[in-house]
Amino acid sequence: MAFLARALRQSNSHLSSRCPAVAASCRWIFPTAAAGSSEAGAAVAPADPELPPPREPVGGARVELPPNPEDALEVFVDGHAVRIPKGFTVLQACEVAGVDIPRFCYHSRLSIAGNCRMCLVEVEKSPKPVASCAMPALPGMKIKTNTPVAKKAREGVMEFLLMNHPLDCPICDQGGECDLQDQSMAFGADRGRFTEMKRSVVDKNLGPLVKTVMTRCIQCTRCVRFATEVAGVQDLGMLGRGSGEEIGTYVEKLMTSELSGNVIDICPVGALTSKPFAFKARNWELKGTETIDVTDAVGSNIRVDSRGPEVMRIVPRLNEDINEEWISDKTRFCYDGLKRQRLNDPMIRGPDGRFKAVTWRDALAVVAEVLHQVKPEEITGVAGKLSDAESMMALKDFVNRMGSDKVLCEGNGPNPPADLRSNYLMNTGIAGLEKADVFLLVGTQPRVEASMVNARIQKTVKATQAKVGYIGPPADFNYDHEHLGTGPQTLVEIAEGRHPFCSVLQSAKNPVIIAGAGLFEREDQDALFSTIETVAKKFNVTRPDWNGLNVLLLHAAQAAALDLGLIANPAESIKSAKFLYLMGADDISLDKLPEDAFVVYQGHHGDKAVYRANVILPSSAFSEKEGTYENTEGCTQWTIPAVPTVGDARDDWKIIRALSEVAGAQLPYDSLSDVRDRISTVAPNLIHVDEKEPCTITSEVKPPVKQQQSLPQTVPYPNCHLARSTLTRHVMVLHCATPPVSPLATRSCRLHGACGALPHPAAATARTLEHPPRLFVSVGDTRADRAVCRVRRRVRYEEEDEEDDEEWGHNEDVARMERYTEDARDQALLVKARVDDEVEVVLVFKGFSSSLSGGTAADPARSVLPERAIIQSVDVVKGPFDPNNIEYLEKGLEWEDFKGRLQ
């Protein structure tokens, strides 16, 4: 026994660095010699130990006692008196006392199930151990957590849990961070007595993000309760009984929630793991960096795990005020896009229209020369949706020093309400939404635009039965709501007290109005926000003790841009620009940009704006730099670099600082702290990290709107998985698109600019692009002298057919293209080719058949493409196609014009 105690104390020292909670449990069961216990007596603690010294509460268990003493009670945990609020369970009381009770099914944010029985403790006057997670604490209760009875009971429970559990630890992605591993070592026996055949369970297909190995499942039902209570979907449930009990999806379906990836974190074993991360790395190989997410305006706290120069995964970080401990799927799985189609070197477009890599000195010299050739009023700067405050401050100062005041940010519209911060922030706060009893959503779909805000609303609705009213186009909500109307006229009726929903608002104690930032893009936004303010005043939405008037921003850069004064009119600024500086701005419309305008694109990914750029300046992504961001509730946070920059890229503000020196308008700061000092003079609130500055409430109300329009005309992001340019390069995110992007597109195309997502092959819709196929893209090494076209055969017959790995390109049946004829009227060819190692083209030939059995020429593709083109793949798709119609690249483009564009 002494040998076992020594061995476990050595294991405890190793555990302390990996799992402090389990290490604490091990120290309690097997105290060290320094604690005054002998080795021989360390294995079994006395039944009635003397009063132990006070201990710190277990992480997350700190609690404020209610002001009324009658609402608190006193219990004794291992002889130590603890005061807790009424309603606490025995397990929570133990956590406050500093005792970590083992558990599998219990989760502080989910309902109590009591499935695993691992949390057994001994309670005085109870004939047998009780499940501490489900037992309410009573006044004067004496709880014993370390008696031989409790330890023996946990050991028996652990033996039953391991009875059918496979020995997959060497190949399980949960290894090293598995609760079952840690607790079996701390509380289990050193051997099992089960000698029969272990049961097995068929794996479930939950989609492209969550990998299932259901034989490892211990039926704790955490995932089931999370899906129902937090995600708001009824996708998972418990099926069967006895030894046939298993967790499934009732019917064969995917888990379609935007929060589905969180089941990976809450699963205590390796039953649910990350499919993109499968077999990539062990957790002890990774370096964790605490930072924030910038894919939306929520600013969820995350930890970026990296190995060397590569981001391996993203996991949530606890922040009660913002995202609690959840993150959305687009936040969790966007990291793959950080390494696709990156801009590595400065580039200049030559006379032939092709980009050429140059040095930073040459690129900045060209930009500076053009700056001196244009008038100051013809200079415009545009900050992208992911820009940090430092880079936006530098861009504004630089453009101002060049004599122009035309600096704006994507998404803020022509006339954003920037006079008061309360006009564009979520004044209630994300955590404050839990106090609301009525929600009025105007032109916003939180489930798509800000998943974590939607999760907070869903939590409030489920807990308090709060009412939700919605004005806007039909939308998909995961909680009960009332669709009040689609146009501003409904809002006017509420403002005038003529709508039935007025009675709901009138009876509310803490009503909340959430307006979508998509309203910024409307011409009648002033009248709309004036009407919203009228509703707020009428129904006490804003008062001294409560500000329920909120604006839900869409992008990470919006709030800081408005604080810094980037509020120029986009249409007028672009129309008059002869020098346009795009800092990560890809979605701004350039239709009115003069043909002779000089465009500089500064960003980390090659996207739509690169088509029009004359000079490209590579910058660092959010995971590679330190920057300041302000979320939709006005809380300032920092990103921390997790990996080095790619290639010769630099931070955005450093590029602008270097350009200002070359252009003769040097900015007065040389370090990040200098830039932040400059920010403090313009927007002091951006310096106070993790703090929210109170906003002023206006009392001015403008005349309400009278127009009747759709509100808003379009959804800002119809698909929450494709809400950012970085996300469109992540293959797993494309698989999650709703409606899904065709798998054929994700395999046939490299998703570079013009070769984005193809329509679904069975739908046979036209391939439409907005830009000519002249784009520098990062491509692999290609032999230009390749004489024969080698292709892979992929066939899909019906839209309803299930995907088959053999049919979708994982087979090695490589053939040579044969001459195509118009014999068959039900086939189409999707041909991917490369011209000059830079241009990627996807052609859709309808009405042609292929035997793929041999041959010499690639026709009709060869009749369209120039001789130097290299055909990379040909996909055969069957469907009801018109044999007389050939659709290609751009809809409506004449055949000869199309050929001339490629040559």
TrEMBL record:
One GO biological process this protein is involved in is:
ATP synthesis coupled electron transport
Which Gene Ontology CC terms are recorded? mitochondrial inner membrane
Judging by the UniProt lineage, the source's domain of life is Eukaryota
4Fe-4S Mo/W bis-MGD-type domain residues are 286-342
KW Ion transport (keyword) present = no
Recorded catalytic reaction(s): these are: a ubiquinone + NADH + 5 H(+)(in) = a ubiquinol + NAD(+) + 4 H(+)(out)
Where in the numbering of this chain does the 2Fe-2S ferredoxin-type domain appear? 71-149
Q: Where in the cell is it found?
A: Mitochondrion inner membrane
Cofactor dependency: [2Fe-2S] cluster; [4Fe-4S] cluster
Question: What sequence ranges are listed for the domain 4Fe-4S His(Cys)3-ligated-type?
Answer: 149-188
Q: What is known about what this protein does?
A: Core subunit of the mitochondrial membrane respiratory chain NADH dehydrogenase (Complex I) that is believed to belong to the minimal assembly required for catalysis. Complex I functions in the transfer of electrons from NADH to the respiratory chain. The immediate electron acceptor for the enzyme is believed to be ubiquinone. This is the largest subunit of complex I and it is a component of the iron-sulfur (IP) fragment of the enzyme. It may form part of the active site crevice where NADH is oxidized.
User: By its UniProt entry, which SMART domains does this protein fall under?
Assistant: NADH-G_4Fe-4S_3 (SM00929)
In its UniProt entry, the species of origin is given as Dichanthelium oligosanthes
Q: Which UniProt keywords apply?
A: 2Fe-2S, 4Fe-4S, Electron transport, Iron, Iron-sulfur, Membrane, Metal-binding, Mitochondrion, Mitochondrion inner membrane, NAD, Oxidoreductase, Respiratory chain, Transit peptide, Translocase, Transport, Ubiquinone
- Bilayer-spanning residue ranges: none
Q: What is its EC number?
A: 7.1.1.2
Q: Which GO terms describe its molecular function?
A: 2 iron, 2 sulfur cluster binding; 4 iron, 4 sulfur cluster binding; metal ion binding; NADH dehydrogenase (ubiquinone) activity; oxidoreductase activity, acting on NAD(P)H
Name-wise, this protein is NADH dehydrogenase [ubiquinone] iron-sulfur protein 1, mitochondrial
Q: To which protein family does this belong?
A: Belongs to the complex I 75 kDa subunit family.
